[in-house]
Every structure is written in structure tokens, then in C-alpha cells.
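User: Structure please.
Assistant: Input sequence and predicted structure:
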Amino acid sequence: ISILYVVGLLSNTLEQIDCPYVTVECVRPVTDRAVVFIGGKKDEPRKLILCTLKDHSKPEFTVISKEDDEQKYDPAYFSRSQPITFTIPETDKLVYASYYPPTNKDYTGPPDEKPPCIVGVHGGPTSYTAQSLSLQTQLFTTRGYAWYVQPVIYVHALF
């Protein structure tokens, strides 16, 4: 999950900004009090966002990218990431991962069966998998698959 901060260069301060976006990428300043970035939520496609900071108030987030009227998504089909942590028995190292359960408002699997699972990996620790909406992940989770993402370095240790 991405976090936005305001850095006070003269006062040597760091202030976290309340932000509704779980993924913040390509941050670019546009004025002394505003930045633009690509922001993603867990249940919406990524958009171009203008973040305006005002003194002693919460930031304003304005979507400035054009909405695609042809692509309307029903959030009832979206699987939302669930953070999980487990330990590798041989090394006692903690592994942090994201789990997306199968989600489809029209269908459910048998309660006594575990769903098939797709294991995705990313090239951590210098890379990550964004927590924002991924239509690739949703394609599988709406069809009964669980989707599990973890760092590639730990996948080799598990098998």
C-alpha cells in the first residue's frame, strides 16, 4: 500500500496525508501546493489524480482523467486483497503476501472444498505487486480461482 507524505524541508518534518488510494505512482509536482499522480483503489481502475494541499486542512483529491463510459464495472464481482503473514518453518522468516479469494456475486463454490489457487510472484524486495484493482486478477477470481501473491525469493524456499 502506498503512503503519501508532505516533507517540510526547512522544518525537517514528515507528515502523512490521508489518502483514499492504495496505489500511488508517478507523482509529479504541478504547483507548490499540488501534485498529480496515478492513483488506484482496490475496486476501481487506476486514474490520473490531482492532489491539492491547503494550509490546516485535508487534501483535496480530484480525478482529472476522462472516465471511460464504455467500461462500467460492478464492484460486487471484485475480490479485494487480504494481507496475510506466515513463517517459513526452516528459517523462521516472516513472509508477507496478498490473498484474493474467489468472488462472484452470482456463484459460490461448495462450502467443503478449497478453491483452486494461482500463485503469482513478484521480484521483491525491490519490486511489489500493487494493491489496486487488477483486471487480470479479477478475471480468475470471478471464475472461482483464488489468487495469491508473494515475493519470489520465498517461493523457492517453500518448495
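The CA atoms of residues 91 and 157 lie 9 Å apart.
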